[in-house]
């Protein structure tokens, strides 16, 4: 785990104009063959939680999951990790509106666009629909966020909005909440509830 974290840090530095020697060294030491590019930390929490639930050790399989702090960075990360850089096979998960950025970034790096799996809106939307709003509200209550949730619902901008949209917006209203619920929502999934984009991503690894 420590070396995986070090690799992610080294890749981030390289993608932002720093040297690549450390990333190359760690990639060789870890035996990496595939990189999964994610938009942010909440996606990373969800993917790592699902891997643990499925009993998969992605690092042992030569897979490194990398969050890029935003889809706009996919071009740099694809060039760094893909054929022009470390030569890793690329795959990724993104919001549907960010898919064009991924496809262009993968294309410039010589990676296939069909290795990108897009959520219908975003990953939180997929997870909320998979679980159902009642179950998600149960999790909000169990996490001690019920008072904040009720205050949020009374905001004028939320009046009359569909419950799934309210929940999605609520998860993003406090720093760290999306990351925490990225883990919790995946943990709560029952048999057959894993959203299709995550299912397809894991099947490709």
Task: Explain what this protein looks like in three dimensions.
The chain has 205 residues and is α/β, with parallel strands linked by helices. Helix content is 55%, strand content 10%. It contains eleven helices and four strands; from the N terminus they run ααβαβαβαβαααααα. The two termini are 19 Å apart.
Low-confidence parts, pLDDT < 50 over ≥5 residues? none
Give a count of the beta strands, DSSP E runs of length 2 or more: 4
Helical segment count: 11
- Series of H and E elements: HHEHEHEHEHHHHHH
Please give the radius of gyration in angstroms.
Answer: 18 Å
Shape summary: elongated
What does the main sheet amount to? 4 strands, parallel
End-to-end C-alpha gap: 19 Å
Strand order of the largest sheet: 2-1-3-4
> How confident is the prediction overall: mean pLDDT?
96
